[in-house]
Specification:
By secondary structure, the protein is α/β, with parallel strands linked by helices. The protein has a seven-stranded mixed sheet, with helices on both faces. The chain has a two-stranded antiparallel sheet with strand order 6-7. A two-stranded antiparallel sheet has the order 9-10. It contains nine helices and eleven strands. About 30% of the residues lie in helices and about 25% in strands. Strand 4 (about 115-120), helix 7 (about 135-140) and strand 5 (about 145-155) form a beta-alpha-beta unit. Its EC number is 2.1.1.222, 2.1.1.64.
Protein backbone atom coordinates (compact mmCIF):
# COMPACT_ATOMS: atom_id res chain seq x y z
CA UNK A 1 0.00 0.00 0.00
CA UNK A 2 1.14 3.53 -0.77
CA UNK A 3 1.04 4.71 2.85
CA UNK A 4 1.80 8.33 2.01
CA UNK A 5 -1.01 8.82 -0.50
CA UNK A 6 -3.44 6.91 1.73
CA UNK A 7 -2.60 8.90 4.84
CA UNK A 8 -2.61 12.24 3.04
CA UNK A 9 -6.14 11.57 1.75
CA UNK A 10 -7.20 10.52 5.25
CA UNK A 11 -5.81 13.67 6.88
CA UNK A 12 -7.20 15.96 4.19
CA UNK A 13 -10.62 14.44 4.92
CA UNK A 14 -10.16 15.08 8.65
CA UNK A 15 -9.30 18.76 8.31
CA UNK A 16 -12.81 20.30 7.93
CA UNK A 17 -14.08 18.10 10.77
CA UNK A 18 -11.21 19.11 13.04
CA UNK A 19 -11.58 22.82 12.27
CA UNK A 20 -15.25 22.71 13.36
CA UNK A 21 -14.68 20.48 16.41
CA UNK A 22 -14.84 21.35 20.10
CA UNK A 23 -11.65 19.33 20.47
CA UNK A 24 -9.57 21.94 18.62
CA UNK A 25 -11.84 24.92 19.41
CA UNK A 26 -10.30 27.00 16.63
CA UNK A 27 -12.59 29.96 17.32
CA UNK A 28 -11.58 29.93 20.97
CA UNK A 29 -7.92 29.81 20.00
CA UNK A 30 -8.37 32.85 17.79
CA UNK A 31 -10.23 34.76 20.49
CA UNK A 32 -8.32 34.06 23.67
CA UNK A 33 -4.78 34.85 22.56
CA UNK A 34 -3.31 32.06 24.68
CA UNK A 35 -0.95 29.17 24.09
CA UNK A 36 -2.47 25.68 24.05
CA UNK A 37 0.87 23.95 24.70
CA UNK A 38 1.11 21.56 27.61
CA UNK A 39 2.80 23.07 30.71
CA UNK A 40 5.56 20.45 30.73
CA UNK A 41 6.42 21.30 27.11
CA UNK A 42 6.82 24.99 27.85
CA UNK A 43 8.91 24.26 30.95
CA UNK A 44 11.19 21.79 29.18
CA UNK A 45 11.76 23.88 26.06
CA UNK A 46 12.35 27.08 28.00
CA UNK A 47 12.27 30.64 26.75
CA UNK A 48 11.71 30.78 22.97
CA UNK A 49 11.72 34.55 22.61
CA UNK A 50 13.40 35.51 19.36
CA UNK A 51 14.29 31.92 18.48
CA UNK A 52 13.56 30.30 15.12
CA UNK A 53 11.36 27.22 15.56
CA UNK A 54 10.23 24.65 12.98
CA UNK A 55 7.23 22.49 13.82
CA UNK A 56 7.19 19.27 11.80
CA UNK A 57 3.84 17.55 11.13
CA UNK A 58 2.01 20.63 12.38
CA UNK A 59 -1.57 19.81 11.24
CA UNK A 60 -3.74 22.94 11.78
CA UNK A 61 -0.82 24.84 13.24
CA UNK A 62 -2.33 25.61 16.65
CA UNK A 63 0.75 24.39 18.51
CA UNK A 64 2.95 26.20 15.99
CA UNK A 65 1.11 29.46 16.57
CA UNK A 66 1.18 28.86 20.33
CA UNK A 67 4.99 28.90 20.18
CA UNK A 68 4.71 32.16 18.24
CA UNK A 69 2.53 33.60 20.99
CA UNK A 70 5.38 32.76 23.38
CA UNK A 71 7.80 34.73 21.26
CA UNK A 72 9.23 32.30 18.69
CA UNK A 73 9.64 32.95 14.98
CA UNK A 74 7.76 29.93 13.63
CA UNK A 75 7.53 27.74 10.56
CA UNK A 76 5.09 24.83 10.31
CA UNK A 77 5.28 21.91 7.89
CA UNK A 78 2.68 19.25 7.09
CA UNK A 79 1.97 16.90 4.19
CA UNK A 80 -1.73 17.85 4.14
CA UNK A 81 -2.36 20.79 1.85
CA UNK A 82 -5.82 21.18 3.40
CA UNK A 83 -4.28 21.48 6.87
CA UNK A 84 -1.70 24.01 5.71
CA UNK A 85 -4.42 26.13 4.05
CA UNK A 86 -6.26 26.22 7.38
CA UNK A 87 -3.07 26.96 9.34
CA UNK A 88 -2.35 29.96 7.12
CA UNK A 89 -5.92 31.22 7.49
CA UNK A 90 -5.84 30.84 11.29
CA UNK A 91 -2.50 32.66 11.48
CA UNK A 92 -3.91 35.51 9.38
CA UNK A 93 -7.05 35.76 11.53
CA UNK A 94 -4.90 35.85 14.68
CA UNK A 95 -2.49 38.40 13.22
CA UNK A 96 0.44 36.08 13.92
CA UNK A 97 3.38 36.13 11.49
CA UNK A 98 4.10 32.52 10.59
CA UNK A 99 5.30 30.52 7.61
CA UNK A 100 3.51 27.29 6.65
CA UNK A 101 4.82 24.84 4.04
CA UNK A 102 3.23 21.76 2.49
CA UNK A 103 5.66 18.83 2.27
CA UNK A 104 6.31 15.33 3.51
CA UNK A 105 8.45 15.41 6.65
CA UNK A 106 11.16 13.37 4.94
CA UNK A 107 11.51 16.24 2.43
CA UNK A 108 11.61 18.94 5.09
CA UNK A 109 15.22 20.01 4.50
CA UNK A 110 14.61 20.83 0.83
CA UNK A 111 11.12 22.20 1.42
CA UNK A 112 12.11 24.61 4.20
CA UNK A 113 15.57 25.55 2.94
CA UNK A 114 16.53 27.09 6.30
CA UNK A 115 17.98 26.07 9.65
CA UNK A 116 16.46 26.59 13.07
CA UNK A 117 17.25 26.96 16.75
CA UNK A 118 14.52 24.49 17.68
CA UNK A 119 12.80 21.68 15.81
CA UNK A 120 9.58 20.67 17.54
CA UNK A 121 7.52 17.54 16.91
CA UNK A 122 4.26 17.21 18.83
CA UNK A 123 1.95 14.51 20.05
CA UNK A 124 0.76 11.77 17.71
CA UNK A 125 3.26 12.42 14.92
CA UNK A 126 5.69 9.51 14.83
CA UNK A 127 3.13 6.74 14.21
CA UNK A 128 2.70 8.08 10.67
CA UNK A 129 6.35 7.50 9.74
CA UNK A 130 7.50 4.07 8.47
CA UNK A 131 11.02 4.50 9.85
CA UNK A 132 12.72 7.04 12.06
CA UNK A 133 16.26 7.16 10.67
CA UNK A 134 15.37 9.50 7.79
CA UNK A 135 13.23 11.59 10.11
CA UNK A 136 16.08 12.05 12.61
CA UNK A 137 18.52 12.86 9.81
CA UNK A 138 16.16 15.53 8.52
CA UNK A 139 15.82 16.99 12.01
CA UNK A 140 19.61 17.12 12.45
CA UNK A 141 20.02 18.84 9.08
CA UNK A 142 17.44 21.47 10.02
CA UNK A 143 19.18 22.42 13.27
CA UNK A 144 21.68 25.19 13.67
CA UNK A 145 24.82 24.31 15.68
CA UNK A 146 23.75 24.42 19.31
CA UNK A 147 20.08 24.07 18.41
CA UNK A 148 17.89 21.23 19.67
CA UNK A 149 15.08 18.85 18.86
CA UNK A 150 12.17 18.77 21.28
CA UNK A 151 9.84 15.81 20.89
CA UNK A 152 6.62 15.38 22.86
CA UNK A 153 4.83 12.09 22.17
CA UNK A 154 2.44 9.43 23.36
CA UNK A 155 4.40 6.59 24.94
CA UNK A 156 4.41 3.33 22.94
CA UNK A 157 4.10 1.11 26.02
CA UNK A 158 0.31 1.57 26.57
CA UNK A 159 -0.23 0.27 23.03
CA UNK A 160 0.44 -3.28 24.26
CA UNK A 161 -2.27 -3.18 26.97
CA UNK A 162 -5.95 -4.06 26.83
CA UNK A 163 -8.14 -1.07 26.11
CA UNK A 164 -10.57 -1.59 29.00
CA UNK A 165 -8.38 -1.62 32.11
CA UNK A 166 -4.84 -1.08 30.83
CA UNK A 167 -3.61 -3.93 33.02
CA UNK A 168 -3.21 -6.90 30.67
CA UNK A 169 -0.54 -7.26 27.99
CA UNK A 170 -2.53 -7.98 24.84
CA UNK A 171 -0.48 -6.76 21.89
CA UNK A 172 3.11 -7.15 20.71
CA UNK A 173 5.37 -4.21 21.66
CA UNK A 174 7.76 -5.04 18.82
CA UNK A 175 5.14 -5.35 16.08
CA UNK A 176 6.12 -2.25 14.13
CA UNK A 177 3.53 -2.70 11.42
CA UNK A 178 2.40 -1.40 9.05
CA UNK A 179 -1.01 -1.42 10.72
CA UNK A 180 -3.89 -0.61 8.38
CA UNK A 181 -7.00 0.85 9.97
CA UNK A 182 -10.48 1.34 8.57
CA UNK A 183 -12.09 3.92 10.82
CA UNK A 184 -15.07 6.07 9.81
CA UNK A 185 -14.60 8.45 12.76
CA UNK A 186 -11.78 10.77 13.75
CA UNK A 187 -10.55 11.25 17.32
CA UNK A 188 -12.50 14.52 17.55
CA UNK A 189 -15.74 12.54 17.27
CA UNK A 190 -16.63 13.60 13.73
CA UNK A 191 -17.55 11.17 10.98
CA UNK A 192 -15.43 10.89 7.85
CA UNK A 193 -17.43 10.85 4.65
CA UNK A 194 -14.55 9.42 2.62
CA UNK A 195 -10.92 8.24 2.91
CA UNK A 196 -11.44 6.07 6.01
CA UNK A 197 -8.18 4.13 5.59
CA UNK A 198 -5.00 5.03 7.46
CA UNK A 199 -1.63 3.30 7.81
CA UNK A 200 0.34 3.53 11.05
CA UNK A 201 3.70 2.31 12.33
CA UNK A 202 4.70 1.55 15.89
CA UNK A 203 8.12 2.62 17.22
CA UNK A 204 9.68 1.61 20.51
CA UNK A 205 11.43 4.04 22.82
CA UNK A 206 14.66 2.34 21.75
CA UNK A 207 13.86 3.08 18.11
CA UNK A 208 13.39 6.77 18.87
CA UNK A 209 16.54 7.22 20.95
CA UNK A 210 18.68 5.16 18.57
CA UNK A 211 17.54 7.14 15.52
CA UNK A 212 18.21 10.46 17.23
CA UNK A 213 21.66 9.35 18.43
CA UNK A 214 22.58 7.91 15.02
CA UNK A 215 21.79 11.28 13.44
CA UNK A 216 24.52 12.84 15.58
CA UNK A 217 22.28 14.52 18.16
CA UNK A 218 23.10 14.37 21.87
CA UNK A 219 20.18 13.26 24.04
CA UNK A 220 19.83 15.78 26.88
CA UNK A 221 16.91 14.04 28.57
CA UNK A 222 14.14 11.51 28.10
CA UNK A 223 11.24 12.11 30.48
CA UNK A 224 8.30 9.74 30.91
CA UNK A 225 4.95 11.06 32.13
CA UNK A 226 2.17 9.26 34.02
CA UNK A 227 -0.66 11.19 32.36
CA UNK A 228 -2.03 11.55 28.84
CA UNK A 229 -4.38 13.86 26.96
CA UNK A 230 -7.27 11.49 26.28
CA UNK A 231 -9.08 8.69 28.07
CA UNK A 232 -6.77 5.93 26.86
CA UNK A 233 -8.36 3.28 29.09
CA UNK A 234 -11.94 3.07 30.37
CA UNK A 235 -10.74 3.13 33.99
CA UNK A 236 -9.07 6.55 33.62
CA UNK A 237 -10.35 9.81 34.99
CA UNK A 238 -9.45 13.41 34.22
CA UNK A 239 -10.03 16.06 31.59
CA UNK A 240 -8.21 17.63 28.65
CA UNK A 241 -5.40 18.76 30.99
CA UNK A 242 -4.55 15.16 31.87
CA UNK A 243 -6.02 11.68 32.26
CA UNK A 244 -4.59 9.22 34.79
CA UNK A 245 -5.20 5.68 35.96
CA UNK A 246 -7.19 5.28 39.21
CA UNK A 247 -5.50 6.47 42.37
CA UNK A 248 -3.62 3.61 44.00
CA UNK A 249 -3.20 1.68 40.75
CA UNK A 250 0.36 1.04 39.56
CA UNK A 251 1.44 3.88 37.32
CA UNK A 252 2.70 3.35 33.77
CA UNK A 253 4.30 5.74 31.27
CA UNK A 254 1.64 7.36 29.08
CA UNK A 255 3.59 10.13 27.37
CA UNK A 256 7.26 10.97 26.97
CA UNK A 257 9.35 13.97 26.04
CA UNK A 258 12.85 14.06 24.62
CA UNK A 259 15.32 16.84 24.02
CA UNK A 260 18.43 16.31 21.89
CA UNK A 261 21.03 18.90 20.93
CA UNK A 262 23.07 19.50 17.82
CA UNK A 263 26.77 19.85 18.61
CA UNK A 264 28.69 23.03 18.03
CA UNK A 265 31.19 22.77 15.14
CA UNK A 266 34.74 21.86 16.15
CA UNK A 267 37.54 24.36 15.48
CA UNK A 268 39.02 21.94 12.94
CA UNK A 269 35.69 21.83 11.08
CA UNK A 270 35.43 25.62 11.03
CA UNK A 271 38.99 25.92 9.73
CA UNK A 272 38.27 23.53 6.88
Amino acid sequence: MDYLTTNRANWNARVPIHVDSDFYDVNGFKANGRSILRPFEVAEVGDVSGRRLAHLQCHLGLDTLSWARLGAEVTGLDFSDAAIDQARAIAADCGIPARFVTADVYDAVEALGETYDIVYTGLGALVWLPELTRWAEAVAALLKPGGFLYLSEFHPFPQVLDEETGTTVTYDYFDRGPHVWEEPHTYTGGRLIESHTSVQFQHSIGDVVSAVAAAGLRVDFLHEHDHTLFCRFATMSGDHTGYRLPEGAPRIPLMFSLRASAGLPRLSDEAS
